[in-house]
Specification:
The chain is mainly alpha-helical. The chain has one domain. The chain is built from ten helices and no strands. Helix 1 packs antiparallel against helix 2. The termini are far apart. InterPro entries: SAM (IPR001660), SAM/pointed_sf (IPR013761). This is SAM domain-containing protein. It comes from Seminavis robusta.
């Protein structure tokens, strides 16, 4: 999503969230208007679990599977960007910090065994993705350090000596 890249998504106000949706194209303007009307801000978006993202897209009236994928992916990328620039573990963990079972105990009681297995698999995959993001952030930081070292070594001042 777009908005002010200098601050994390959790700091976006309602207008910045709507503006970010509008940058995706004219077909996304109705969703932006609904986001404005619903008061969706960055704190709300940053607190959503994967399941809640899908439920929120339902509530916003996003019926197109393509539009749902674009919005969900842009949100995930924005949150992952926060994780790399702010703290590799902080924002990634907040993407799904509580399981659906912890949020809705009554829903857990009505789940079939197959749904429970799917939920557990999703939680495992989320944990693995979170770990990969932390590792990716560490690698990006190391790459930046090495690039600086290479630039220092190959600078004209060092090669002339």
């Amino acid at each position: 999503m777009g908005a002010d890249q200098s601050k994390g998504i959790a700091q976006w106000d309602v207008e910045e969230v709507a503006a970010a949706a509008e940058t995706l194209g004219r077909h996304f303007k109705p969703y932006a208007d609904t986001m404005r009307g619903s008061g969706i801000d960055g704190i709300f978006l940053a607190s959503l679990s994967t399941t809640e993202v899908q439920e929120t897209l339902d509530d916003l009236g996003v019926e197109s599977r393509l539009h749902r994928r674009v919005l969900a992916r842009k949100l995930r990328v924005a949150l992952e960007g926060d994780a790399c620039t702010v703290s590799c573990s902080q924002s990634v963990v907040s993407w799904d910090s509580t399981s659906p079972r912890e949020r809705r105990p009554s829903a857990r009681k009505s789940m079939s065994e197959k749904e429970e297995d799917s939920r557990k698999l999703l939680e495992l995959m989320t944990a693995a993705a979170q770990q990969q993001m932390v590792e990716r952030c560490a690698l990006l930081q190391k790459e930046a350090e090495l690039t600086k070292q290479i630039e220092r070594i190959t600078s004209p001042a060092n090669t002339a000596a």
